[in-house]
Specification:
The complex is a heterodimer of chains A (257) and B (179). Chain A is α/β, with parallel strands linked by helices and 257 residues long. Chain A has one domain: Rossmann fold. Chain A has twelve helices and eight strands. Chain A has helices spanning 16-27, 45-48, 58-62, 89-94, 99-108, 125-133, 145-160, 176-189, 202-210, 214-217, 222-234, 241-249; strands at residues 3-8, 33-37, 75-77, 80-83, 113-117, 136-141, 164-173, 194-199. In chain A, strands 3-4-2-5-1-6-7-8 form an eight-stranded mixed sheet, sandwiched between helices. Chain B is of the alpha+beta class. Chain B has helices at 17-27, 71-77, 110-116, 119-128, 140-146, 148-168, and strands at residues 7-14, 31-37, 49-54, 57-63, 68-69, 83-89. Chain B has a six-stranded antiparallel sheet. In chain B, helix 1 packs antiparallel against helix 3, helix 2 (71-77) packs parallel to helix 6 and helix 3 packs antiparallel against helix 4 (119-128). The longest helix of chain B has 21 residues, at 148-168. The termini of chain B are far apart. The chains are: A alpha/beta (257), B alpha+beta (179). Chain A binds chain B through residues 121-123, 125, 128, 132, 143-146, 148-149, 152-153, 156-157, 159-162, 178, 181-182, 185-186, 188-189, 251-256, and chain B through 75, 78, 80, 113-114, 117, 119, 139-142, 144-146, 151, 154-155, 157-159, 161-163, 165-166, 169-171, 173-176.
Amino acid sequence: MVEALAVASGKGGTGKTTSTLALGMALAEEHDVTVVDADTGMANLLFHAGLADVEVTLHDLLVAETDADVADATYERFGMSVVPCGTSLTDFAAADPERLRAVVADLAADTDVLLLDSPAALGSKSAVLPVVLADRVVIVLQPTIPALSDGLKVQEYARSYGTDGAGVLFNKVHDDRAVERVAEKTDRHFDGPHLATVPDSDAARAARDAGEPLLAHAPDGPAATAFREAADRLAVRDADADAVAERFRSAVVPDPP
Amino acid sequence: MNLPRGDPVYARVVEGAGVALEETLDRGLTGYVLLSPGDALLSRDGDRGVLTFEDGVPVLAYHPATDRGGPPALATLDTPGPVRAELFATPADALARAHEADPLRVPPGRPAERLADDPALAERTRERAPDGRVDGDTDPVAAFLDDDEALAAIREQARDEARERADEWGLTEQLDDGT
C-alpha cells in the first residue's frame, strides 16, 4: 500500500514544511510514513527535523554518477523516515531533477504514505515534478487573495497532470472568523475537503528553532490538534506499491540528449 | 479601451506592482499606469496591462492581449518578480469617456490586494476613494471568491501555462488529456 501526497501552496511563507512534518507525524500513528524535502532549491525541512548536520541528503542522490544510496539519505526521526535536502546552491545546480522520480520510486516501494514537501513556485521543472509525481495534492492556504489565487494555480497544474486534490488546509490563521467567512466559498472552488484550520502559533516557530516538528514540540497545542484532524480527513488510499513504484520510474520522459 | 496620450511622470523597474500602486497613490495621480513584467529580455508585447487612476485611486484595469478587463485583468497582470511601471498623467476630464466602461472597473482596494498582497495599502486606497466607490462592508476575500469570472481567468491562465511549460520541460506525456 502506498500513496504519494504532495504538500504544495504556490506561495511562500504559508508553512508548507511545518504542515508536511505535522501531517507526517499524525499519519505515522497509523501508517508507515516517509517525508521527502522535494523543495530542492529552497530546502528547509532539515532545520525542522533536527537534521541540519547530516552529511548525505537528497542532493547527493540527484547528482550524476552518485555513490550514495537512497538508504544513506533516509533518517528515522519522530516515528517517520525523513529524506532531507541540502541547502547548497552548488549542489542544487549539479542536481538533475529527472533523478527525483527514481528516488521517489525506490522510497515508494517501501512505505505506506509518501509526503513530498513541494517548492513554493511552479517556475521550473524541479518545482513542478512533485505535483506531477504525486497521486494527490494537499494545498496549504491562508485566507488572503494572493494565497487563494496561487492555490488555484497549483490546483490547475495538478489537474493538468491528472493529480487529484486531497483537500485544502488553512494554515497560520490569525482570525478564525476570516476563514469561517470564506470556507464555504473556498469549498466551491477547490477539490477535496477543507481539512482543517490551523491557528497561527508561536509554537510552530519555537518548534522550528528547536529543530523539531510541531507535533513533537507542542503535541497538545491547538495547532497540533488541528493538524491531527487534517490527517484524519486525508483518508489515505490503498494502492499497489509495485504499481506505484513503476509509475514513478516511468513517470517522466527524459530530455533528449 | 482608448486612452488619451498622457505626460510621462515616472518610469522604472520596481520590485513589484505594489511599489507602483503606492507611488500612484502618494502622487494622487490622475491618469494611467502601464505595467509589464520587469525582465525586458523575457517580456513580450502581450504581457503589458493598463490601470487608470483618479486622484491615486484605481478605476479600470485592462489587459489588451487577452481583452480581459476588471478583476480578471488583475489575475492576468499578477506575475511574479519585478515589474516595469510607467506612470502617465492626464487631465481628469480626458478619462471620463474611458471610465464609462463599467466591465473594466475594479474595486479601489482590489489592485493592492491582488497584485501586491498589501492589505494596508488597500486600506489607504479605500480611504482615499470617493464615497460612491468604496468596497462597502464586503470582505474582499469573500468578494474575490464570488467573482467567478476572475477565478475562471486564473484557472484558464494556469492551465495554458501548465501545458506550455510541460512542452518546455518534456512533461507533455504526463499531461492528463482527459482520455
